[in-house]
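Continuing the series of single-chain predictions for the mutant panel. This is the parent chain; the variants come on the following pages.
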Amino acid sequence: MILDIDEKNEGGRLDKYLKKHLREASDGFIYKMLRKKNIILNGKRASGNEVLKAGDEIRLYFSDETYKKFRGREVTEESGDLGDSGLHNIDGLIVYEDENILLLNKPPGMLSQRDGGSRSSANEYIAEYLSGKEEGETSGFKPSVCNRLDRNTSGLLIFAKNYASAREISESLRERTIKKYYLAIVCGMPVPGRRTGYLTKDHKSNRVRVCELPSAGASFIETDYRIIKPAGALTLIRAELLTGKSHQIRAQLSSMGFPIAGDPKYGDKRVNEELGRRFGVRSQLLHAYELVLPEFKGILKGISGKSFKAPLPGEFEKVMRGVDGNLEFKGTQGLYS
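Parent structure:
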Protein backbone atom coordinates (compact mmCIF):
# COMPACT_ATOMS: atom_id res chain seq x y z
CA MET A 1 0.00 0.00 0.00
CA ILE A 2 1.43 3.41 -1.03
CA LEU A 3 0.35 6.70 0.55
CA ASP A 4 1.33 9.90 -1.26
CA ILE A 5 1.58 13.06 0.82
CA ASP A 6 -0.06 16.15 -0.67
CA GLU A 7 0.16 19.81 0.34
CA LYS A 8 -2.77 19.43 2.76
CA ASN A 9 -0.77 17.02 4.92
CA GLU A 10 2.57 18.77 4.57
CA GLY A 11 4.22 19.93 7.80
CA GLY A 12 2.79 17.27 10.09
CA ARG A 13 4.73 14.50 11.78
CA LEU A 14 4.76 11.04 10.25
CA ASP A 15 3.51 9.27 13.39
CA LYS A 16 0.58 11.69 13.79
CA TYR A 17 -0.37 11.18 10.14
CA LEU A 18 -0.28 7.39 10.58
CA LYS A 19 -2.38 7.51 13.77
CA LYS A 20 -4.96 9.56 11.93
CA HIS A 21 -4.93 7.37 8.82
CA LEU A 22 -4.89 4.01 10.64
CA ARG A 23 -7.54 5.06 13.11
CA GLU A 24 -8.16 1.56 14.51
CA ALA A 25 -4.47 0.82 15.16
CA SER A 26 -2.90 1.30 18.59
CA ASP A 27 0.14 3.56 19.02
CA GLY A 28 2.19 0.49 19.95
CA PHE A 29 1.29 -1.25 16.69
CA ILE A 30 2.31 1.77 14.57
CA TYR A 31 5.70 2.18 16.28
CA LYS A 32 6.33 -1.57 16.07
CA MET A 33 5.65 -1.48 12.31
CA LEU A 34 8.07 1.46 11.97
CA ARG A 35 10.80 -0.41 13.89
CA LYS A 36 10.33 -3.56 11.78
CA LYS A 37 10.36 -1.50 8.56
CA ASN A 38 6.83 -2.57 7.65
CA ILE A 39 6.22 1.17 7.31
CA ILE A 40 8.90 3.12 5.45
CA LEU A 41 9.19 6.75 4.29
CA ASN A 42 10.71 7.53 0.89
CA GLY A 43 12.28 4.07 0.73
CA LYS A 44 14.02 4.38 4.10
CA ARG A 45 13.43 3.31 7.68
CA ALA A 46 11.59 5.96 9.72
CA SER A 47 11.14 6.59 13.45
CA GLY A 48 7.87 8.55 13.25
CA ASN A 49 9.13 12.01 14.18
CA GLU A 50 9.94 12.98 10.59
CA VAL A 51 8.17 16.09 9.26
CA LEU A 52 6.24 15.29 6.09
CA LYS A 53 6.63 17.23 2.84
CA ALA A 54 4.43 17.28 -0.25
CA GLY A 55 5.59 14.50 -2.55
CA ASP A 56 6.72 12.17 0.24
CA GLU A 57 5.85 8.50 -0.22
CA ILE A 58 4.85 6.19 2.63
CA ARG A 59 4.82 2.47 1.96
CA LEU A 60 2.82 0.09 4.17
CA TYR A 61 3.82 -3.55 3.94
CA PHE A 62 0.50 -4.98 5.20
CA SER A 63 -1.97 -7.41 3.74
CA ASP A 64 -5.17 -5.87 2.37
CA GLU A 65 -7.08 -7.43 5.27
CA THR A 66 -4.76 -5.86 7.87
CA TYR A 67 -4.95 -2.47 6.18
CA LYS A 68 -8.75 -2.54 6.05
CA LYS A 69 -8.91 -3.65 9.68
CA PHE A 70 -6.83 -0.74 10.95
CA ARG A 71 -8.20 1.84 8.50
CA GLY A 72 -11.73 1.35 9.83
CA ARG A 73 -15.26 0.78 8.54
CA GLU A 74 -18.18 2.83 7.35
CA VAL A 75 -20.45 4.51 9.88
CA THR A 76 -24.01 3.32 10.28
CA GLU A 77 -26.72 4.18 12.76
CA GLU A 78 -26.67 0.58 13.97
CA SER A 79 -22.92 0.14 14.44
CA GLY A 80 -21.67 3.66 15.08
CA ASP A 81 -18.54 2.85 13.02
CA LEU A 82 -17.00 5.21 10.48
CA GLY A 83 -14.56 4.13 7.83
CA ASP A 84 -12.69 5.22 4.76
CA SER A 85 -15.51 5.37 2.25
CA GLY A 86 -17.96 6.65 4.84
CA LEU A 87 -16.02 9.70 6.07
CA HIS A 88 -18.33 12.04 4.20
CA ASN A 89 -21.22 10.62 6.23
CA ILE A 90 -20.04 12.62 9.24
CA ASP A 91 -21.58 15.66 7.51
CA GLY A 92 -25.02 14.17 8.00
CA LEU A 93 -24.46 13.88 11.75
CA ILE A 94 -23.43 17.51 12.31
CA VAL A 95 -26.21 19.55 13.93
CA TYR A 96 -24.32 22.84 14.20
CA GLU A 97 -20.84 24.13 13.39
CA ASP A 98 -19.04 27.46 13.53
CA GLU A 99 -15.41 28.53 13.96
CA ASN A 100 -15.42 27.67 17.68
CA ILE A 101 -17.60 24.62 18.31
CA LEU A 102 -19.26 21.68 16.58
CA LEU A 103 -22.34 19.73 17.72
CA LEU A 104 -22.61 16.11 16.59
CA ASN A 105 -25.65 13.81 16.68
CA LYS A 106 -23.81 10.67 17.83
CA PRO A 107 -25.45 7.43 16.65
CA PRO A 108 -25.89 4.53 19.09
CA GLY A 109 -22.87 2.25 19.08
CA MET A 110 -20.28 5.00 18.63
CA LEU A 111 -17.91 5.76 21.51
CA SER A 112 -17.60 9.39 22.62
CA GLN A 113 -13.92 8.84 23.36
CA ARG A 114 -11.60 5.88 22.97
CA ASP A 115 -11.89 3.48 25.89
CA GLY A 116 -8.33 2.17 25.81
CA GLY A 117 -8.95 -0.29 23.00
CA SER A 118 -8.38 0.12 19.28
CA ARG A 119 -11.98 1.02 18.50
CA SER A 120 -12.30 4.57 17.12
CA SER A 121 -14.59 7.16 18.62
CA ALA A 122 -16.41 10.37 17.76
CA ASN A 123 -13.29 12.22 18.91
CA GLU A 124 -11.14 10.67 16.15
CA TYR A 125 -13.83 11.06 13.50
CA ILE A 126 -14.27 14.77 14.21
CA ALA A 127 -10.51 15.34 14.36
CA GLU A 128 -10.15 13.80 10.90
CA TYR A 129 -13.18 15.66 9.58
CA LEU A 130 -11.72 19.00 10.73
CA SER A 131 -8.28 18.05 9.44
CA GLY A 132 -9.82 17.57 6.01
CA LYS A 133 -11.16 21.13 6.24
CA GLU A 134 -7.72 22.37 7.40
CA GLU A 135 -9.22 23.02 10.84
CA GLY A 136 -7.33 20.29 12.65
CA GLU A 137 -4.78 20.63 15.42
CA THR A 138 -3.53 24.23 15.60
CA SER A 139 -1.39 26.09 18.17
CA GLY A 140 -1.04 22.84 20.11
CA PHE A 141 -4.82 22.45 20.62
CA LYS A 142 -6.45 19.24 19.45
CA PRO A 143 -10.22 19.51 18.84
CA SER A 144 -11.91 17.41 21.49
CA VAL A 145 -15.26 16.34 22.90
CA CYS A 146 -16.44 18.29 25.96
CA ASN A 147 -19.24 16.00 27.19
CA ARG A 148 -19.70 12.24 27.07
CA LEU A 149 -22.50 9.83 26.31
CA ASP A 150 -22.64 6.09 26.92
CA ARG A 151 -21.66 4.13 23.83
CA ASN A 152 -25.24 3.02 23.08
CA THR A 153 -26.89 6.32 24.05
CA SER A 154 -27.41 8.55 21.02
CA GLY A 155 -27.54 12.32 20.76
CA LEU A 156 -25.68 15.59 21.11
CA LEU A 157 -21.95 15.83 21.72
CA ILE A 158 -20.14 19.18 21.99
CA PHE A 159 -16.70 19.60 20.40
CA ALA A 160 -14.44 22.56 21.10
CA LYS A 161 -12.19 23.79 18.28
CA ASN A 162 -9.90 26.02 20.36
CA TYR A 163 -8.73 26.68 23.92
CA ALA A 164 -11.11 29.59 24.48
CA SER A 165 -14.25 27.68 23.52
CA ALA A 166 -13.08 24.61 25.48
CA ARG A 167 -12.72 26.75 28.61
CA GLU A 168 -16.18 28.29 28.25
CA ILE A 169 -17.92 25.00 27.57
CA SER A 170 -16.06 23.19 30.37
CA GLU A 171 -16.92 25.93 32.85
CA SER A 172 -20.59 25.87 31.84
CA LEU A 173 -20.75 22.07 32.17
CA ARG A 174 -19.06 22.24 35.56
CA GLU A 175 -21.46 24.94 36.80
CA ARG A 176 -24.44 23.14 35.17
CA THR A 177 -25.60 26.21 33.27
CA ILE A 178 -26.02 24.23 30.02
CA LYS A 179 -29.47 22.65 30.12
CA LYS A 180 -29.47 19.03 28.91
CA TYR A 181 -32.68 17.26 27.90
CA TYR A 182 -33.02 13.58 27.00
CA LEU A 183 -35.84 11.58 25.44
CA ALA A 184 -36.38 7.98 26.48
CA ILE A 185 -38.91 5.21 25.96
CA VAL A 186 -39.57 3.54 29.31
CA CYS A 187 -41.58 0.61 30.58
CA GLY A 188 -44.76 1.85 32.25
CA MET A 189 -45.55 5.47 33.10
CA PRO A 190 -43.53 7.19 35.83
CA VAL A 191 -45.05 9.99 37.89
CA PRO A 192 -43.67 13.24 36.46
CA GLY A 193 -41.58 15.55 38.61
CA ARG A 194 -38.15 16.04 40.10
CA ARG A 195 -36.47 12.95 41.51
CA THR A 196 -33.38 12.82 43.73
CA GLY A 197 -31.23 10.00 45.03
CA TYR A 198 -27.70 8.80 45.76
CA LEU A 199 -25.61 6.91 43.27
CA THR A 200 -22.72 4.54 43.92
CA LYS A 201 -20.61 2.92 41.21
CA ASP A 202 -19.02 -0.51 41.06
CA HIS A 203 -16.03 0.11 38.79
CA LYS A 204 -15.34 -3.60 38.27
CA SER A 205 -18.77 -4.33 36.80
CA ASN A 206 -19.28 -0.78 35.41
CA ARG A 207 -22.71 -0.71 37.04
CA VAL A 208 -24.24 1.85 39.36
CA ARG A 209 -26.83 1.58 42.11
CA VAL A 210 -29.30 4.29 43.16
CA CYS A 211 -30.62 4.58 46.73
CA GLU A 212 -32.89 7.10 48.41
CA LEU A 213 -30.56 7.71 51.38
CA PRO A 214 -26.92 8.88 51.37
CA SER A 215 -24.10 6.44 52.08
CA ALA A 216 -20.31 6.44 52.07
CA GLY A 217 -18.95 7.20 48.61
CA ALA A 218 -22.39 7.94 47.13
CA SER A 219 -23.00 10.97 44.86
CA PHE A 220 -26.16 13.06 44.98
CA ILE A 221 -28.18 12.94 41.76
CA GLU A 222 -31.20 14.89 40.53
CA THR A 223 -33.34 14.53 37.40
CA ASP A 224 -36.62 16.11 36.29
CA TYR A 225 -39.04 13.86 34.37
CA ARG A 226 -41.94 14.83 32.11
CA ILE A 227 -44.42 12.65 30.19
CA ILE A 228 -44.42 13.22 26.43
CA LYS A 229 -46.65 10.42 25.11
CA PRO A 230 -48.09 7.21 26.60
CA ALA A 231 -48.16 4.25 24.21
CA GLY A 232 -49.50 0.98 25.49
CA ALA A 233 -47.10 -0.61 27.95
CA LEU A 234 -44.44 2.00 27.15
CA THR A 235 -44.13 5.78 27.55
CA LEU A 236 -42.06 8.41 25.77
CA ILE A 237 -40.63 10.74 28.43
CA ARG A 238 -38.34 13.75 28.67
CA ALA A 239 -35.61 13.82 31.31
CA GLU A 240 -33.74 16.98 32.27
CA LEU A 241 -30.34 16.06 33.66
CA LEU A 242 -29.74 18.34 36.66
CA THR A 243 -26.64 16.45 37.79
CA GLY A 244 -24.44 14.49 35.44
CA LYS A 245 -23.31 11.16 36.82
CA SER A 246 -22.48 7.96 34.97
CA HIS A 247 -25.62 5.95 34.00
CA GLN A 248 -27.71 8.39 36.06
CA ILE A 249 -30.94 8.36 34.04
CA ARG A 250 -30.74 4.63 33.23
CA ALA A 251 -30.14 3.49 36.79
CA GLN A 252 -32.53 5.97 38.42
CA LEU A 253 -35.46 5.03 36.20
CA SER A 254 -34.74 1.35 36.79
CA SER A 255 -34.66 1.90 40.58
CA MET A 256 -38.04 3.66 40.31
CA GLY A 257 -39.50 0.61 38.52
CA PHE A 258 -39.61 2.19 35.04
CA PRO A 259 -36.53 0.87 33.18
CA ILE A 260 -35.59 2.24 29.78
CA ALA A 261 -36.75 -0.05 26.98
CA GLY A 262 -33.91 -1.95 25.34
CA ASP A 263 -31.42 -1.28 28.15
CA PRO A 264 -29.29 -4.45 28.44
CA LYS A 265 -27.78 -3.44 31.80
CA TYR A 266 -30.69 -1.98 33.80
CA GLY A 267 -33.71 -2.97 31.71
CA ASP A 268 -36.43 -5.63 31.64
CA LYS A 269 -35.16 -8.74 29.86
CA ARG A 270 -38.60 -9.84 28.60
CA VAL A 271 -39.43 -6.43 27.13
CA ASN A 272 -35.98 -6.16 25.57
CA GLU A 273 -36.32 -9.55 23.89
CA GLU A 274 -39.70 -8.59 22.45
CA LEU A 275 -38.40 -5.24 21.19
CA GLY A 276 -35.43 -6.98 19.64
CA ARG A 277 -37.62 -9.57 17.92
CA ARG A 278 -40.17 -7.11 16.56
CA PHE A 279 -38.13 -3.96 15.92
CA GLY A 280 -34.47 -4.97 15.99
CA VAL A 281 -33.77 -2.92 19.14
CA ARG A 282 -30.37 -3.83 20.57
CA SER A 283 -29.67 -1.04 23.08
CA GLN A 284 -31.32 1.47 25.38
CA LEU A 285 -33.80 3.86 23.77
CA LEU A 286 -32.19 6.94 25.32
CA HIS A 287 -31.34 10.02 23.26
CA ALA A 288 -29.58 13.26 24.27
CA TYR A 289 -32.14 15.37 22.44
CA GLU A 290 -31.60 19.04 23.28
CA LEU A 291 -28.99 21.45 24.61
CA VAL A 292 -29.89 24.97 25.74
CA LEU A 293 -26.82 27.16 26.05
CA PRO A 294 -26.36 29.81 28.77
CA GLU A 295 -25.32 33.44 28.41
CA PHE A 296 -21.66 33.35 27.42
CA LYS A 297 -19.37 36.32 27.96
CA GLY A 298 -16.38 35.29 25.89
CA ILE A 299 -15.74 33.83 22.46
CA LEU A 300 -19.10 31.98 22.43
CA LYS A 301 -21.17 35.10 23.11
CA GLY A 302 -22.75 34.92 19.65
CA ILE A 303 -24.57 31.65 20.46
CA SER A 304 -25.73 32.65 23.95
CA GLY A 305 -29.16 31.30 24.83
CA LYS A 306 -29.49 29.21 21.68
CA SER A 307 -31.15 25.80 21.67
CA PHE A 308 -30.03 22.87 19.54
CA LYS A 309 -31.93 19.61 18.96
CA ALA A 310 -30.79 16.29 17.49
CA PRO A 311 -33.23 14.23 15.37
CA LEU A 312 -34.33 10.97 16.97
CA PRO A 313 -32.90 7.65 15.77
CA GLY A 314 -35.26 5.67 13.57
CA GLU A 315 -35.73 3.01 16.29
CA PHE A 316 -37.69 5.47 18.44
CA GLU A 317 -40.26 6.12 15.73
CA LYS A 318 -40.55 2.43 14.81
CA VAL A 319 -41.22 1.41 18.41
CA MET A 320 -43.67 4.23 19.14
CA ARG A 321 -45.62 3.56 15.94
CA GLY A 322 -45.77 -0.14 16.69
CA VAL A 323 -46.87 0.31 20.30
CA ASP A 324 -49.30 3.10 19.43
CA GLY A 325 -50.89 0.67 17.00
CA ASN A 326 -52.09 -1.42 19.96
CA LEU A 327 -49.08 -3.70 19.95
CA GLU A 328 -49.05 -5.82 23.11
CA PHE A 329 -45.85 -7.01 24.75
CA LYS A 330 -45.98 -10.60 25.97
CA GLY A 331 -45.79 -10.91 29.72
CA THR A 332 -45.88 -7.16 30.43
CA GLN A 333 -49.61 -6.64 30.98
CA GLY A 334 -50.06 -5.06 34.39
CA LEU A 335 -46.32 -4.96 35.17
CA TYR A 336 -45.89 -1.26 34.43
CA SER A 337 -49.32 0.18 35.07
